[in-house]
Amino acid sequence: MRTEQKEYIILNVNGIDRKFTVGEDRTDVQPSETLAETLRNRLDLTAAKVSCDKGACGCCTVIVDGEATLSCSTLTVECDGKHVLTLEGLEDPVTGELDPIQQAFIDHTAFQCGYCTPGVIMTVKALLMKNPHPTENELKEALAGNYCRCGSHHQVIETVMDMTREEA
Amino acid sequence: MKNFKHKDALTVNEAAEAKAQGAKVIAGGSDLLGELKDKILPEYPEKIVNIKTIPGMDAIEKIEGGVRIGANVKLSELAGCELVKDKAPAVAEAAYSVASPLIRNQATVGGNICQDVRCWYYRYPNQIGGKILCNRKCDGMQCYAFTGENKYHSIMGGMRVHRSGCSESCPAHIDIPQYLEKIRANDLDGAARILMKKNPIPAMTGRVCPHTCMTDCKRDRYDESVNINQIERFMGDYILAHADRFMTAPEHETGKSIAIAGSGPAALSAAFYLRQAGHTVTVYERMEEPGGALMYAIPEYRLPKDLVRKQIKAIADMGVKFVCNTKIGEDVTVDQLKAENDKVFLDTGAWEPSVLGIEGEELTRFGLEFLVEVKKWMADKPGSDVIVVGGGSVAVDVAVTANRLGAKSVKMITLEPADKLPASKKDLDWALEEGITMENSWGPKRILRDGSKITGLELKKCVSLFDESGRFSPKYDENDTMIVEGDAIFLSIGHRIDLSFLGEDPFLATERGRITVDDKTQATSKEGIYAGGDVTTGTKTVVLAIAAGKKAADAMIAELGGEPEASLKEGFLKAGAHCLDHTPQLETPHVPAAERTIDKEDELTCSFEEILTEANRCFNCSCYAVTPSDIATALMAVHAKVVTNKAVYDSDEFFTTKVKIQDFLAEDEIVTAIEVPFADGVCSYDKFRERESIDFAVVGLATNYKVKDGVIKNADIVLGAVAPVPYRAGDAETYLTGKAVSEEVAEKAAEIALAGADPLEQTEYKVDIAKTLIKRSIMKLL
Questions:
Q1: What CATH number matches the domain at A100-167, 3.20.20.120, 1.10.150.120, 3.30.2350.10, 3.30.70.1490?
Q2: CATH number assigned to the domain covering A8-89
Q3: B741: closest CA among B715, B772, B716?
Q4: Digit-coded pLDDT (tens) for B48-105
Q5: Strand B529-531 and strand B343-346: pairing?
Q6: Which of B30, B48, B102 sits opposite A31 (nearest CB)?
Q7: What is the pLDDT of residues B252-284, one digit of tens each?
Q8: A54 touching B, CB under 8 A?
């Protein structure tokens, strides 16, 4: 009979394979652990924030196998063999050059307190990976699950539209 | 999140098996993980089984006349599917309306339609002061949505998610709120039929039942419980007065026969249901008259014997045969009964007086017809000083009877302290009111005598009643004694079961002097023989015996090839009018202490007006939360099917039978796909909410209109978030069929659709929103 529960999982996080045992020990990934918890607590990748912890705010957004994903509402054990990309994985590891989206956000100051920004950038990244030149409506639609309490939405839309237009 | 075990299922069967063993199914996880984080499930699951790993469940494929959507299809895929957008737009629009794109990337179709109902209070337990106990979670107080903020709650009434407090604590599980609702609708016959589904002799229980239902009435914590006792009593009298309508001979005879030994409440209950199902029923009774405890153990002033006779006559008139003066084990044996009948039911009761084993016990009087004996003895010796040993309801009956028969004094001696007496508080209060005195926490040590004449009773202090394991095992201080004087002692310390009638039967299992029966069926260890009542439980209540008789009858009827009772589909539940006003409980009319007698009833039956007012105090405890699934609403509008590993359901049946889909699904049942037929009409989904992203619907509306030459040929109108389950506006659909589209028609249809609305205090605006959405959907046809 098949083992009931996985013994270990391998996550590719920002290009590096990470192996975790699954179990109840402190060093194990627990079956109830969310991807957000694993990234933040085990890998010290704290860009993704746990804000509402219900999938409603988008602050925890990362990219899993090319899809914008709510890491607070995803179990780590269910990410076995998947590619996870976090904000920390966007810059070039050799040159330290930022992703164009990150640079554009800085250039346009498309944030205020910055708490929701990693989630916003990851959502935009996932969109541009599929659709490099979105219309404004497509962009707004994609960002409909990322809430910003400071009200930076307008700058975000302007920035991304500018950036994708420049590229075009 | 608290930890759990996790399993990736590879097949539906594997997942179904895990689910049957208590695992929770996870698909996208957006609903389940929230519930786990908030710890709001009644039981935290030990295991989660992931169905995303089952191959083949994430495809959208064209089938004949429609499209089949795998349960694991993501909402984003469904929302973007060109085929669905084109052929069943309401479904795609509903999927697109769910939460946010990030959630739609993860959430699945199966998960969406199986998600739990959502109550604002239930989902946000921390924000409003810690753990919220609601009716839904089996315990708790009044529903917060009833009076508080409730924009996400029903405007059509509630739906039952489990038994109400009253029904749950009633051993017979009578659907009390349901028959009270019928009373409110002035439908006494309907009320009677609901009551009699579980209790065929409410005229008896209306007088003798302890009514634990009233202790667990949620209204008790609001002001005072509903006086279910008086309502039941009224209904019992109503049923007896119209026994020719409610207790009729069956239309068809099955030709099967059942013998019942004993004629107490369990026997009467079993006889009623068995006869109703068309079986031939013969009841054997050793006494002169049937009724058991109802006839011989409960005093006249509590339960008039003429009423018991009337009740038994009503059952006899159904064709049940009563054979009296026949003792089982002597005149006829159980084996004989079994040989001559298809089934046998034993309800021989507990009639052997318990023995104390103290000196002089032979001088205390007590027998089978103890109340008769008490009467006889008192007639001989009025003016005696009577001592009654015991603190149960029978002891109170004996004391009150002796007192009303002219004893000089009556003193009750109880083992229990005053606040732990088994008799009801009302009975004790009345006894004290009538001048009976009481010594609590004393046990009999020695009977004092002068030759064969009793002079008193020596008592020893009872220091504890139960041992460490909680078993009844009284301990005494032999040095702390007291003497009470008296010239008659009645021992009322419980009854034992006499099983000697069984003879030496190694095949009928007994335990601690009781017949062992199966909990669900009342079946004994011997094929074809069932038992119920005190002979299986020791001395307990009438209502428990009635419940046992009904369970046994159900099991026998099923064994004999009968159809199980069809469950009644009830509409949305409405609370009593003005039930939130604080009002006192209906007072039970009774005779004042000084005028109470031995042979006239102490309590009286209320008028219909009084019980109607009382029935209106019922909260009709039910859940006002709504199914939040937009897709469910849309699926109903296009008459989609829901496919599970066990069956294919029409969406109306799947979504509207139970509030919680998990209650509708079998333990090992998992949704695997939905089948959406192509809608050849104007089909759309509209959702009113506060924010265009994330928010749940305040009102959702899925419609599908077939229009030809400006005339509506067919209309499907399903509202979401207005009732616990999606609400099909059937009357409006009928009204619209054949009508030419116009503003007037649209308005009328909207009025009709919301005619049944019964909004909570603060949600009247939801009625207007729903009407507006419906009107708009029709006006778009112009």
A1: 1.10.150.120
A2: 3.10.20.30
A3: B715
A4: 999 999 999 999 999 999 999 999 999 999 999 999 999 999 999 999 999 999 999 9
A5: parallel
A6: B48
A7: 999 999 999 999 999 999 999 999 999 999 999
A8: yes
